[in-house]
């Protein structure tokens, strides 16, 4: 595989190639950043924008490249602010600024001027990811990584120029106090970035910066009494061997019960903590659940909560550099993730755009305490059409597919519950699969290899005669007296176009189907993205797809069952989805709608 290709699987070979590509990119730009660099493409402004695969209700600027949700969202004085990495000059990574949009509801967005651009010696070679923190007195501050004139990654801050501007249009990066963290000699200055939202404990502010020492992933901890002078703690907050670089760390408390979110500084006897890293080598976001020991200044994952590679992912598909924030308005924790393109840089240049932000998700702790649950924010429902298509008690016999007519298969929100009478026909789980990533099992079996209990589910973004389709589906296996539920979003047949990355993404769902004999699914379908939530958000998978036939009004939606056990569609509701206001400029003097 060449560096220009996207990472195709999580096999060891691909990971080595990915590591090699990072090094090559580093040599070209002189710093160790994780984005591939295409010097000949990065300053080519889009002449036109190809709308075919643009999303209808996901966050996108009108053109050009975006990456990372990690610059992150913030709720301030009645408005949501979204900052993200953006190339104003082209459709590949480069010339990065912090773009800035505002919203009243996290769905309709208006664009402002960039909040941060490379202008100072301490960020002249790049304004990379970071986070916002609201200080006492209701004062927002941004912590971000600047690439300085010596190509070192340093940590900088920016504050609003005018706190009484309701939109916080303009930000200043004071020369006094910047950079606020300089990497000392013991830190790898080309792998030292993405400060977290700061939290306050033991009379001090705390922030974490992602890094690595050889292959050890490291979350360096810094503390400050006054938010000006920062000191590195003796020990990192957390580290783990064999993971490589930790980008975009996120660290936050979760309530042991219920769905309410907690402020980033919240502590309490029963409060658990989540620690997330974006793993540069695999390009997936992994998290653990554990305990924050504030006396020892250490985070310790719970027994069984495994760091990185073999651990839990927010999303088993295309989802990276995510960031959560505490929404003071609705007392919830909201997670944003970025999905890049899978169609190649040449296509991105032709399309005139690349990258989307996924639909914000509410996150909370599963009652088992072992994983998080995620669900699209309630506000998304304002885009649902008033007259959804409904199906009840529809039987799917072996080998059948049934069209869900009356809805636009390119831009929909679908909720469905499947049930079955018995688990007797579940296929045995091959012991050889125990060490394979779920996506390899999904790839072997696909949607057309007949099974016992499954595969069944939806065929999304499908063409009329099924030349193109993306199945989102379940297969149930028997394993040592128990059952294992495999959840797949398989892009293998998503497009007739050649040269695309069409992965079979998959994860297992921690659910005891022998009790319920039911399983639920929600899919957000939006032209070139399918975001799917199994069993109330236990396992989530995002796929990017580029159909050639199943585009616009020609895209269809089907139900299918290729297992011998009959499946009943207990209840299906499918809504056409409307278009929100998407990044229309908010002119000076105007008010947000
Ligand atoms: N993207 C940023 C870095 C971050 C990476 C640069 C993650 O700060 O580590 O655009 O995608």
From TrEMBL:
It comes from the Eukaryota. Belongs to the glycosyl hydrolase 32 family. It catalyses: Hydrolysis of terminal non-reducing beta-D-fructofuranoside residues in beta-D-fructofuranosides. Residues 58-376 form the Glycosyl hydrolase family 32 N-terminal domain. CDD domains: GH32_Fruct1-like. One of its GO terms (molecular function) is beta-fructofuranosidase activity. It is found in: Vacuole. One of its GO terms (cellular component) is vacuole. One of its GO terms (biological process) is carbohydrate metabolic process. This is Beta-fructofuranosidase. SMART domains: Glyco_32. SUPFAM superfamilies: Arabinanase/levansucrase/invertase (SSF75005), Concanavalin A-like lectins/glucanases (SSF49899). Residues 392-576 form the Glycosyl hydrolase family 32 C-terminal domain. PANTHER family: BETA-FRUCTOFURANOSIDASE, INSOLUBLE ISOENZYME CWINV1-RELATED. Keywords: Glycosidase, Hydrolase, Vacuole. It comes from Linum tenue.
